[in-house]
Amino acid sequence: MAKDYGEVKFFGTVGSPFAKRVQIALDLKGVQYTYFEEDLRNKSELLLKYNPIHKKVPVLVHKGRPLAESLVILEYIDEIWGSNHPLLPQQPYDKALARFWSRFIDDKCLPAILKAAFTANKEEREKGSEESLEALEYLENELKDKFFGGESIGLVDIAASYLAFWLPAIEEAVGLKLLTSDKFPKLHKWGQEFTNHPVVKKTLPQREKVVGFFKARYASIIAASK
Ligand SMILES: N[C@@H](CCC(=O)N[C@@H](CS)C(=O)NCC(=O)O)C(=O)O
């Protein structure tokens, strides 16, 4: 008889890269869950109840107990549904490294990209581009196999999904070139492998909508700066 893992609820929004991390992990592991689509301009009572501190998606509720923050949720999912498609390596050192790089993506890469793309001030944008290229270089050197997780998608790949799907959409929307195939051949190829993985592909939102969203965001930042 299949093990009963209890009820799983997952709160996200279709365009959220952080929510997609959780969806990718759940889908890779074949977890059954009920999905709640949030309107972030009008957050539900349940979202505010389950994530009163950050009031953000994603939130995972397992057997009535809520968890927030995508990287925390990914590790929890891996511990509970461990044997099916493991996301973290077995060895403590490798496991610690996977945590290091996942946090590096959130702490260094994403802020630099946002600065490069969505700052009105030209010098700040250039600084953001330099910081982004430096951060991407570290990841390019760290990528040794098909995926950061080896032959299959792991924690770092899921954390880096922003670079595979959202960054190219941002580049198109604001006319920026960061993750190019000549500068970052391994990372570029990885991005294609990752977004074409059948499980990942099914979770991703429509690219044109995401590009449109970023174009509007960019236009409003530029308009506000005038
Ligand atoms: N560090 C958080 C970031 C989550 C996040 O920024 N979520 C956004 C959607 S992409 C959100 O819910 N924003 C709502 C708000 O800021 O009010 C994570 O990793 O889960």
Explain what the structure shows.
The chain is α+β, with helices and mostly antiparallel strands. The protein has two domains: 8-80, 3-Layer(aba) Sandwich (Glutaredoxin), CATH 3.40.30; 92-225, Glutathione S-transferase Yfyf (Class Pi), Chain A, domain 2, CATH 1.20.1050. Helices cover 58% and strands 8% of the residues. The chain has ten helices and four strands; from the N terminus they run βαβαββαααααααα. Strands 2-1-3-4 form a four-stranded mixed β-sheet, with helices on one face. Helix 1 (17-29) links the parallel strand 1 (8-12) and strand 2. Helix 7 (161-174) crosses helix 8 (185-196) and helix 7 (161-174) crosses helix 10. The mean pLDDT is 96. Bound molecules: glutathione. Residues 16, 18, 40, 55-58, 69-71 line the site of glutathione.
Tally of individual domains: 2
Shape estimate:
globular
Radius of gyration: 18 Å
CATH topology of the largest domain: Glutathione S-transferase Yfyf (Class Pi), Chain A, domain 2
Q: How are strands sequenced across the largest beta sheet?
A: 2-1-3-4
The CATH architecture classification of the largest domain is Up-down Bundle
Order of helices and strands: EHEHEEHHHHHHHH
Total beta strand runs: 4
CATH class of the largest domain: Mainly Alpha
Tell me roughly what share of residues is in helical segments.
55-70%
**Main structural class:** alpha+beta
Bound molecules: glutathione
What's the helix count? 10
Q: Could you name the ranges where pLDDT drops below 50 across 5 or more consecutive residues?
A: none
Give the averaged pLDDT, no decimals.
96
The fraction of residues assigned to DSSP E strands is 5-15%
State the major sheet: 4 strands, mixed
User: Span from first to last CA?
Assistant: 64 Å
Family: Belongs to the GST superfamily.
GO biological process, one term: glutathione metabolic process
GO cellular component, one term: cytoplasm
Domain GST C-terminal: 91-213
